[in-house]
Amino acid sequence: MERIVLFDGECNFCNQSVQFIIERDPKGRFKFASQQSEVGQSFMMKYKIPNEVDSIVLIEGSKSYFQSSAALRISKSLKGFWKVGFALIIVPNKIRDRAYNLIAKNRYKWFGKLEACELPSPEIKKRFL
Fold it and tell me: Which InterPro entries does its entry note (predicted)?
């Protein structure tokens, strides 16, 4: 099953999150695209994800997830104890997303914005769409 993570390419926290996923996904199950890129925009349109969604987006097969649902579904596929994070899926979505949105709203203030993109290794570069 194809798994694509759409992320805010200008956000330090989001970029660090992508690096976090890559390090814990040795089988390369996840592919990545910046939401600002043409590829990212085409996925946003194809899956009818509103532009005002201020969140990481996971496309898994024919479905899309965002906010805490995306983060928890990603954690389920990572190596190590991160898999247990998926157990938080039992917490009601409204409660999970409140915590997620607090971070999302403050991410530039707390973590900053990127002025330039990091150049990935050729092996990692293959995972970006």
Answer: DCC1-like, DCC_oxidoreductase
